[in-house]
Amino acid sequence: MPDSKKIMVKLAWEAMQRAHAPYSKFQVGACVEADDGELYYGANIENASYGLTVCAERVAIFSMVAAGKKRIRSLAVVGATDGACFPCGACRQVMREFASPEIPIYMGNRRGEIVTTMALGELLPQSFGPEFLNDK
Ligand code: THU
Hints:
alpha+beta, 5 helices, binds tetrahydrodeoxyuridine
């Protein structure tokens, strides 16, 4: 879906401009596509109590979930990097909660260009997920 990919990166880039990152000064934006095609976005939100910081990807995913959607079709992340901005490990695990390993993750740079695309399963192989618990 090349069109939604382009729009997602644009929304992620715009969200990145609204990041609250006064401590790290490292801005990140993300956009998630739900399984019904709706788009949700987020930026990293830092806190004076540093550990309370929430990454852009999680802000976007939690916005999707708060809107009543539980499945991610694709996700775009852009950061203040020249190369691809990769999602942190915690965010990969949160993606895993709401996505299958095949979904594409588009990773972009400070100019809003997609640098690389990888499947979630490549970013988080051999992972733990909800089905481990649902068997109980
Ligand atoms: N950050 C994200 O928003 N997403 C990531 O995947 C990596 C890190 C944010 C958190 C913090 O505000 C800043 O980048 C520096 O770590």
